[in-house]
Every structure is written in C-alpha cells, then in structure tokens.
Amino acid sequence: MPPFLPLFFLFLLTSTTSKPTSPSPSSSSSSSSPSSPPSLTSLMSTNHCKLFSSLLSSSSSALSTFQSNIPSGLTVFCPSDSSLSPFLPTFKNLSSDSQLSLLLFHAIPIYNSLQSLRSSNGVVNTLATDGSNNNFNFTVQNNGDAVTLKTPLNTALILTTLFDKDPLSVFKIDNVLKPRELFKLVEPPAPAPAPVAEPPASDKNKKKNKHKHNSPPAPPESAPQPSSENVKSADDDNVGFRCACVAWRQLVLALVIVLVVVS
Ligand SMILES: *[C@@H]1O[C@H](CO)[C@@H](O)[C@H](O)[C@H]1NC(C)=O
Ligand SMILES: *[C@@H]1O[C@H](CO)[C@@H](O)[C@H](O)[C@H]1NC(C)=O
C-alpha cells in the first residue's frame, strides 16, 4: 500500500495541474490576439454585446463587411444587450436591406482610439455610407471625457472599450444608433402646436359655443314666450269674440222676440 501512495499523489497532482493547463490554451489564444485581432463576434458576445454579435453573425454580408475592413482600420460601436433587446421587434420589422444598413451603420471604416474620438468632433461616415451620397453618417461629439454619437433621431454614449489596438477598436454604447435614412423623424413640434393652437381653438369653440348657446336657446326661449303670449292673446281675442257673439245672439234673439210679440 505505501508504494502506491506516492503514485496516487502524483496522479492527483497531474490531474489538478491539467486543469490549469486547460485554461492556458484560452490564455494562449488571448496572447495570440495582439498579433491578430480577436474574433469580433466572440469579443462582443462575451462583453454584453451578445445580441449585436448574433445579429451580425446571422447576416453573412454584414459580418464579412466588418471583417474585411479590419485590416485597413475599423471602429465598431456595439449597442449593449440591454439597449438592443427592446429594439429587436423594430429591427426584425425592417427589410433585409435596411437590417444590413443598420448593422453597417455601427462601424466606421477607420481605426479610432478612444483618445482620438475624444479629440475629434464632427461628422463621420460609416460602413453603411454610400460614398457618393455621404449618407448614413453620424456626429461624434465630446463633453469632457464622455464621447457621444448623434444621429438626427437619437444619441448614444460610449460606455466601455472592449478592444483597442490598431487597426481595430470596439466600443460598447448605450443605445442603438438610428440612421435618419431608415427611421422617420418623430416631430415633436406636431404635438406642440396642438396645445398652442388649442387656446385659440378653444376660444373659437367657446365663441362658437356661445353663439350656439345664444342663438339656439334664444329662438326657443324667445319663440315660446312670444308664441305663448300670442296664443294667449289669440285665446283672449277668441274669448272676447265668443262673448261678443253670445251677446249679439242674445240681442238678435231679443229683437226677434220683440218683433214677434209686436207683430
Ligand atoms: C412594423 O411595421 C408595420 C408596418 O410598417 C407597422 O405598422 C408596425 O408598427 C411595425 N412594428 C414595429 C414593432 O415596429
Ligand atoms: C450626412 O448625411 C446626410 C444624409 O443623411 C447628407 O445629406 C449630408 O450631406 C451628410 N453630411 C456629411 C457631412 O457628409
């Protein structure tokens, strides 16, 4: 038995050391990343950009466009899972062309470090940009250390750097970037004029209502009153006429009786 014990401990040692060696391949893959940029999709999916990563993976042309741009420089902005999740129904509602444009809208075909983004304000083109139209662009704007990306429809803030080594940088942002080419501007002035227009409208309505109240009730009120008065006066006249009639009849009767008696 004693001779087996050392062997047993040796086995334990090798089994425990074999466990650390299994993570070592992954660390060797991460050590290989400096030489060649890491897998974009795995980089994003392990950093709370899993939804964006899976959307990219499900569109072969979007993923290949991203990857083919890495050697010449690429800056990726991946919307966080919590910001992309509520947007998914809208995304799935888009045509496949629009879906592709929206994905390509989240990358600039130039390498930018966070520092270079901080030191530059202005309009940038994206992978979705049609060169001749300069469309599908957004504005990089800095406020202190904070870097925001603005479209006419919304704004996203850079949250963290997931990867930053020339020629690739990947930043996590807190919002899905909505290009104006795909979404109609929700016009806030539309509801605003309504309240502004309401006071005059309500005044007009009140005036109209006043006129309505004045004019419709007026005829009923004035009409019944004069009409009832007229009716009363007519009745009175009738009564007077009747009385006169009776008096005349009695007078005529009396005259006839007198004439008969006389004759
Ligand atoms: C999907 O599109 C239809 C028609 O364009 C629209 O009525 C509907 O509101 C859209 N749904 C979402 C979730 O965007
Ligand atoms: C940005 O895109 C719009 C179209 O959405 C275009 O009219 C405009 O010229 C572009 N701006 C720049 C600076 O390229």
Characteristic terms for this protein:
263 residues, 7-stranded mixed beta sheet, 12 helices, binds 2-acetamido-2-deoxy-beta-D-glucopyranose
The helix/strand class is alpha+beta
**Overall spatial form:** rod-shaped
Quaternary form: single chain
What is the succession of H and E elements? HHHHHEHHHEHEEEEEHHH
Radius of gyration, whole Å: 46 Å
From the N-terminal CA to the C-terminal CA, the straight-line distance is: 176 Å
Our estimate of the beta-strand percent is: 15-25%
Identify the bound ligands. 2-acetamido-2-deoxy-beta-D-glucopyranose
Ordered list of secondary-structure elements with their pairings:
Elements: H1 4-21, H2 23-32, H3 40-45, H4 50-58, H5 60-69, E1 74-79, H6 81-84, H7 88-93, H8 96-104, E2 107-108, H9 114-118, E3 122-125, E4 137-143, E5 146-150, E6 155-165, E7 168-173, H10 193-214, H11 218-222, H12 224-262
Helix pairs in contact: 5-8
This protein binds 2-acetamido-2-deoxy-beta-D-glucopyranose (2 copies).
The site of one 2-acetamido-2-deoxy-beta-D-glucopyranose has 3 residues, from helix 7.
What does this 3D model show about the protein?
This protein is an alpha+beta fold. The protein is 54% helix and 16% strand. It has twelve helices and seven strands. The protein has a seven-stranded mixed β-sheet with strand order 2-1-7-6-5-4-3. A hairpin with a 2-residue loop joins strand 4 and strand 5. The longest helix is centred in the last third of the chain and has 39 residues. It is rod-shaped, with a radius of gyration of 46 Å. It starts with a helix and ends with a helix. About 27% of the residues have low confidence. It binds 2-acetamido-2-deoxy-beta-D-glucopyranose (2 copies). One 2-acetamido-2-deoxy-beta-D-glucopyranose binds next to helix 7.
